[in-house]
Amino acid sequence: MGSKYPRSLQGCLPLWALMLEIALILIFFFFTEYDNFSTHQEITGTHQAFFQDMTVMAALGLGFLTSSLWRCGWSNVAYNLFMLALGVQWAVLLDGFLNEPFFGKVVIGLLRIRRATMSAMTVLISAGAILGKTNLVQLVLMVLMEVTAFSAMMRVNRQYLYAEENESMMYVFAAYFGLTVAWCLPRPLAKSAQEKDREAVSPSLFAMLGTLFLWMFWPSFNSALLRLPSERKNAVFNTYYALAVSAVTAISVSALTHPEGKINMVHIHNAVLAGGVAVSPSCQFFFSPWVAMVLGLVAGLISIWGAKCLPGHFNRVLGIHDTCGIHYTFGLPGLLGGIACIMRLMSYWTENPLIIYSVLLDTGKLSLSMAVGMVSGLLTGLLLKLKIWRAPPEAKYFDDQAFWEFPHLAAGF
After folding, report:
1. H or E element in which residue 37 lies
2. The Cα angle at residue 152 between residues 148 and 158, in degrees rounded to 5
3. Is the per-residue pLDDT at 405 higher than 50?
4. For 262, which DSSP code?
5. Torsion 88-91-95-101 (CA) sign
6. Could you tell me the pTM of the whole model?
7. Which among 401, 390, 395, 384 has a CA at the least distance from the CA of 129?
8. 5 vs 378: CA distance, rounded Å
9. For residue 141, how far is the Cα from the chain centroid?
10. Cα–Cα distance between 343 and 252 in angstroms, integer?
């Protein structure tokens, strides 16, 4: 008896993935070169440390954060690595082509790879809304589309809105890109898929491991693209205090809102990270920890509220199924961070009325990130619905056995 699961990847994934990788190799061969002017200290010192921290966050942190589903842990962790590896290659090229002289080669240094890793992380965040409902071929298309949209948006931000590299509003862009793609997928879920869309004890513990990795390395991530030592110091301190307060808030409020005073592990997976998301756009500008701590408190409360209310009310009204809760993990805290950045500038209104120009620029950055994320997400979602990608049927959502070999199971399962 043959397998009941469709061979949706047997023909198209190896062919498309290998052809794409060969094309990337050829582009790197003809159009890139290494940075031969970096000093030994730049390679082995702070730059290398930031690069390692960002890679740990992306591969381990975001990989395990999405591994809590009952029967979909293998896919979520492994697909996260696949998307990261592909996304960084594509992002390096885009960053070079958009910022280097037209006839020059793309010079690859650690700073460019760090920017590329940040671009690829937008895909890892967005994919949290659709994991378990797509195959790997669809995720390949999503990587190419989202990294391209994010890189183009960053180019516009830098050229016309005078944004710094760390002011990308990447969490807002990534969250609403992913939610828009999820809105385009078939809904509501089939009953068989709803039964598998639940957490198990051991995978939930692995998801907590991903949360811990993200919590530990988030200060490095928020300061990775800052150039001045004083700004890096402020970013590290403020991010740490915001994360600390959001962790205490998440655990306390989770117990407070339960009828029996018990803590919900889903709240802990998401809300303890909210402070790091909220403080990211302006973490280098706060010269006292209390501001970051207030942001961490408010972000933790918003994230807990979102985890309790959005799946049953807001998402049901809009018809969005958010697999890993990226809306209240990254989207809402990211919006809070963007609004806080605008309010910080408005506090200088009495001292300098011309600050209105900077307020308008920051408002434009936040609005642009959400608009580009939703528009590009809508286009990507519509493309993912095409039958040529052979998406898994709804009855096989959230099931590793659709795509992975399980030698210990009967051959006909």
Report:
1. none
2. 145
3. yes
4. P
5. positive
6. 0.90
7. 384
8. 29
9. 16
10. 28
